[in-house]
Amino acid sequence: MRDLKIAKTDWAKGVEKLFGPYRVFGPKKEGLFHNFARLEKGEAPDFSCKNTRLSAKGLIYPQTEKMFEYTLDPNKPDHHVHKEPVKDYSPMAVLGIRPCDAKAFTLVKLNFDTPEYKDPYWIKNYAAATFVGLACDAPCHACFCTSAGTGPYDTAGLDVLLADAGDFFLAKVLTEKGEKLVAAAGWAGAGDAGAFEAKAKAAGDKVVSKVNTAKLAGKVTNDLHAAPFWEDLAFACINCGTCTYLCPTCWCFDIQDEVCGTEGCRLKNWDSCMYPLFTMHGTGHNPRGEKAQRVRQRFMHKLKYFVDKYGAGIHCVGCGRCVTACPVNIDIRRVAEIMNGYEPGKDCAV
Ligand code: SF4
Ligand code: SF4
């Protein structure tokens, strides 16, 4: 790891140079919100937003991805053969990802890249990416990253971390991939580790929203599962799925075939545990047919099952997206507080 200082004028020139060796992605304003988008030469990532509406999840794990295609036409020589479409796994530079969203990929990796199971699409996209993070100096009111296992200057999952210091960026180059990108951009000024650390401390102190999760690991799973508060918690939920689509750590998907005439393809699509069809069996039985069961599943997965299975904290990085976007104000911080404090047989107000 080493420190760099990049003048903003050199930043712009360096970004231009990245368009040769990399596909370049960064925040771009689309309507009212910023989202990650592929940038064309001459375009700069827009760092003026607190965070993107959707996380960068879709760059590694697209909302819809074609797995293979086929023809059922017996007159074609390759009928009934699964053909993988040509995909672009060339290097990509992801500029301006927030530390919480980069950390989220490290949690998703625990599920998509294990010794037993490997998602080849996710793994190849992740391997192609070089993540240049942008530290947060002004967290939003709903951010609770510092109590969710990360922070505004966390380096987990990043290759380079930038801190905006006015006319220049202070930067930390964290990995070999980061070194390669910095060399391609031509950024070489000596940094200031002390100034970087001072900014990191000041930013961490600004994150005042917290979530209390200390007792979750010690709770009995079946006690939480059978707790009486789920009906009340779920009462207002309209099962819109917004929370799961915005979430950088939600990873559920469905696989569907689309066939038109004799031509077909198989797609991997984001799914949501909040949808009634999510666990519908072929028999028609649905183990989560009620709304309260689905809301319980979302929070039990994030705050209990994941904690117990991986020992890597909660399945949430405190980005605050679901808190601000839920149309009925269901707040994971409040749910965590209730779960964390739950004792069977004792009153618990929702
Ligand atoms: S965003 Fe809110 S209302 Fe929509 S599914 Fe999630 S918890 Fe329910
Ligand atoms: S659960 Fe909510 S706060 Fe946590 S990472 Fe997902 S969207 Fe962000």
Secondary-structure content class: alpha/beta
Largest sheet: 7 strands, mixed
| DSSP E strands, number | 10
Which percent bin holds the helix content?
Answer: 25-40%
* Basic shape: flat
- Unreliable parts: none
Q: Mean pLDDT, rounded to whole units?
A: 96
Structural domains: how many: 2
Cofactors, ions, other ligands? iron/sulfur cluster
Which strand order does the major sheet show?
1-8-7-6-5-2-3
The succession of helices and strands, N to C, reads EHEEHEEHHEEEHHHHHEEHHH
Strand content: 15-25%
The whole-angstrom Rg is 22 Å
Distance between the termini: 46 Å
Determine the oligomeric state from the structure: single chain
Helix segment tally: 12
Lay out the secondary structure.
Blueprint: E1 2-7, H1 8-18, E2 23-30, E3 33-38, H2 57-60, E4 64-71, E5 92-97, H3 99-112, H4 120-128, E6 129-134, E7 160-164, E8 168-173, H5 176-185, H6 193-206, H7 221-225, H8 230-234, H9 242-246, E9 253-260, E10 263-270, H10 291-310, H11 321-325, H12 332-341
Parallel strand pairs: 2-5, 5-6, 6-7
Antiparallel strand pairs: 1-8, 2-3, 4-10, 7-8, 9-10
Helix pairs in contact: 1-5
Bound molecules: iron/sulfur cluster (SF4) (2 copies).
General description of the model:
The chain has 350 residues and is an alpha/beta fold. It is 32% helix and 19% strand. It has twelve helices and ten strands. It has helices at 8-18, 57-60, 99-112, 120-128, 176-185, 193-206, 221-225, 230-234, 242-246, 291-310, 321-325, 332-341; strands at residues 2-7, 23-30, 33-38, 64-71, 92-97, 129-134, 160-164, 168-173, 253-260, 263-270. Strands 1-8-7-6-5-2-3 form a seven-stranded mixed sheet, sandwiched between helices. The protein has a three-stranded antiparallel sheet with strand order 4-10-9, with no helix packed on it. A hairpin with a 2-residue loop joins strand 2 (23-30) and strand 3. Helix 1 packs across helix 5. The chain is flat. The site of one iron/sulfur cluster has 14 residues, from helix 11.
